[in-house]
Amino acid sequence: MNRAAITASTCNMLRKLSEFMCAQRAPAGYRPGATLEHLRRNLGLAGFQMMEPGRARLLYEDGELAFEIHERTESQWLMHLVMTEFVLRIPASQQGSARLEVHHGGAIRRSGLVCRRRAGDKAIVTALDEHLQADSALLATLLPLDFKRLHIELADGCWTLRLEHMGGSEVVNKMPAFRRYIRLNPDQRKCLLDSLEGVKRLLLRL
C-alpha cells in the first residue's frame, strides 16, 4: 500500500472514530431525567416510575409493564434536543425477523399509513401491513398522532415498537440560553396512549 493510500485510510479511520465519539458524548447542558419529569407531569399517570436517569416505565394498575420511555439526545448548532422514545415489547408467537418503519401517507394532507420494510422477511411485513390497514380503530388513533418516528422490529421471538412523538420533548438552546418543554396536548396524549394499546393488540394477534 502506497503512502497516499495509507494517509487516506488513516484519515478515514480517524473521521469514523471522531463520529463515534461524538455520537456517544452527551451534549453539554443535558440533564438526564429532566425531560422525563416534564413528561411525567404532562401524562399525569399514576403508574409512571423512574428507572434511572433518562429511563422510565409505566405500569398498569395490576403491576404489569405497559411500556418504557427513554430519553434520546440530538445535538445541533448551539442547541440540542431531548426526545422521548416510547418502547413497547410484546412476545411474538412466530419465528423470523423483520424491521419496518411506519409513516403517514400523503404529500399535503394525511391520507393513510405506509409501512416500509427495512430488513427481514417480506411476508412478515406484508402480513403486519395488512392487519394494520384493516384495523380501523388503530388507524383512527395513528393518523392524527404527530409522531416523528415509528419503528417495529421482530427479533429473537419478540416484537419491539419504538415510537418518538414530536411532543414530550425539550429544546435546550445555548445562545440565547433557554429551555423549552414541548408538551403533549390532551388530544395528542389520548392518541398516543390509545395508539400504544392498539399496536399491542395488533401484534398479539399476529
Distance between the termini: 53 Å
Report low-confidence residues grouped into runs of 5 or more: 4-8, 17-23
Which series of helices and strands comes N to C? Answer: HHEEEEEEHHEEEEH
Q: In total, how many beta strands?
A: 10
Major β-sheet, in short?
A: 10 strands, antiparallel
What's the gyration radius in Å? 20 Å
State the helical fraction: 25-40%
Average pLDDT confidence is: 88
Oligomer: single chain
- Envelope shape: globular
What is the element layout, followed by pairings?
Elements: H1 3-24, H2 34-43, E1 48-52, E2 55-59, E3 65-76, E4 79-91, E5 98-105, E6 112-120, H3 122-134, H4 136-142, E7 147-155, E8 158-165, E9 169-173, E10 178-182, H5 186-205
Helix pairs in contact: 4-5
